[in-house]
């Protein structure tokens, strides 16, 4: 993990009328790290991701993604960022290979280049046996794996993953977490991982950010947050314990 910030925000705010979704958000994600982005529903995590992708404009403040301004240079950001939303969308009447080929063409990849990458990606995520099945018949876990395959063929610098294990059984969750770890370690892709699955985040995150009521209330490695909030430096400390301590204090 490098020390260079590849994602930065400063005073980032987003309001919808009188409703403040993101309030004075300042943090960074460092090149090559897995950043666990935590918070309850409605805390502003997804809104933050949408601003970083240039899909919604901030009310105030600024963000940079690989030195690009998402508001003014959204196309450049999309070229270097892979994104798996909470409800990932594919064409249900196409099979996995057809979906990935379509996505590759959208990214200006000729078929002569993408074909081998598509087959390798499908093999990597364990979908070769299901490749002829229409994606509409895929389980949620299979669709999430297809999303990982999409990232593999795009080869982005950064991946934003919004609740990638939501609704999966334990086996499916473990598989997706292993794929995310592989993206980081083997492909050197910086990961910003938004999730409620704290046990899985603890396994792979280099640093944690906790967002509550639109504000980032804590950022750092788990050991640092545990020391600051619980007064312990036990490496066996649970992320659940640290998270709940911050949540209870802010909610009190």
User: What profile does the largest beta sheet have?
Assistant: 6 strands, mixed
Q: Indicate the radius of gyration in whole angstroms.
A: 18 Å
Helical fraction: 25-40%
Described by the principal axes of the CA atoms, the overall outline is globular
Query: Beta fraction of the residues?
Result: 15-25%
Mean pLDDT: 92
The CATH superfamily of the domain at 5-86 and 158-251 bears the name P-loop containing nucleotide triphosphate hydrolases
Structural class by sheet pairing and helices: alpha/beta
Q: Regions with pLDDT < 50 over 5+ consecutive residues?
A: none
Identify the CATH architecture of the domain at 5-86 and 158-251: 3-Layer(aba) Sandwich
* N-to-C CA distance: 36 Å
Give the beta-strand count.
9
CATH topology of the domain at 5-86 and 158-251: Rossmann fold
Strand order within the widest beta sheet? 5-6-7-3-8-9
CATH class of the domain at 5-86 and 158-251: Alpha Beta
Quaternary status of these chains?
A: single chain
| Order of helical and strand elements | EEEHEHEHHHEHEHEEHH
| Number of alpha- plus pi-helical segments | 9
Give a brief description.
Helix content is 40%, strand content 24%. The protein is an alpha/beta fold.
